[in-house]
């Protein structure tokens, strides 16, 4: 009886608030935003389940749901690298109920990959919670007769087109970083795109493709199991996961990249809704259990305010748009 009375009372109060707002001339959107969230929040992940995008999205979503008191539903929308899901988020109603799992791949790299992109990362999205950054690791099939990136480059230079490299799809971070690596090294390595990072490993382990530049977080388990071997890492400094493995720079290629991950909202989302999402996500990102989970997976937990997040995103959008266009990397 009490619960029935409470629900009727809540409905009455909501109707009274609606009537008052209407009488005062308040827009209904303002009332709904003040009550945000009153239903499930959707997070679009522009990659299949199982990769770095998906891992971070679900770690954040589970904890954000508890803080908001509403479900946070992760929706995987892969296709055209990361383009399909990112475009869907850009077109979503900017009310805070649709967020994007963003990374260097879809926010920065796509700006250089596509001549006529359907969205502008800096104009159409706002970061509301960058949580972690990950480096990449160049891994090889176990029987590839090279122990380092230097040896691989020397062979590729003498044997153009003889080696193959996998990616998580045309235009994915794995594709662009590897293509930039081979371009700057001056070698011809054949691209073999897959539908997501997890789809690569059966062929890499089976010896049907030679190498793969993958996020360190998702390659780690395969390396630990001895299924593949690491040759180099992408950070400016050596990875704590693989302190004995040299970086691209140490291997003679002037290239580095660490990919940040976090939630983005459509830019026209009301400011008060963005602010609430930032506050709640900041509390989620500060959680010691989450930071430990990211660290164990090879990531570097981030702790940035809104202005620092915007500056980081702008820096990488401008840097990688210029580099991708200079190299001439195409998504298709």
Order of helices and strands: HHEHEHEHHEHEHEHEHEEHHEH
Q: What helical percentage do the residues reach?
A: 40-55%
CATH superfamily of the largest domain: Bordetella uptake gene, domain 1
The CATH architecture assignment of the largest domain turns out to be: 3-Layer(aba) Sandwich
Q: Count of helical segments?
A: 13
Number of domains: 2
**Spatial extent as radius of gyration:** 22 Å
List the keywords.
disordered N terminus, alpha/beta, D-Maltodextrin-Binding Protein, domain 2, 2 domains, 10-stranded mixed sheet, 19% strand, 46% helix, 332 residues, globular
Describe the structure.
The chain starts with a helix and ends in a 5-residue tail after the last helix. The longest helix has 22 residues. The protein has 2 domains: 163 residues, 3-Layer(aba) Sandwich (D-Maltodextrin-Binding Protein, domain 2), CATH 3.40.190.150; 99 residues, D-Maltodextrin-Binding Protein, domain 2. α3 crosses α11 and α5 runs parallel beside α13. 46% of the residues lie in helices and 19% in strands. With 332 residues, it is α/β, with parallel strands linked by helices. Strands 1, 2, 3, 4, 5, 6, 7, 8, 9 and 10 form a 10-stranded mixed beta sheet that branches.
